Amino acid sequence: MNAIYKVMLPTVVSIAMLDSAFSSAMAQMLKQELVGTWEVVSVVNDNNGKKSEPYGSHPMGYLMFDPNGHVSLQLMRSDIPKVASNNKNTGTDAENKAVVQGTTASFGTYKVDEKNHSVSVHYVGSSYPNWNGTDQERSVAITGDQMTWTDPAPPFGGTAVATFKRAK
Question: Under DSSP, is residue 159 helix (H, G, I), strand (E, B) or coil?
Answer without folding.
Answer: strand
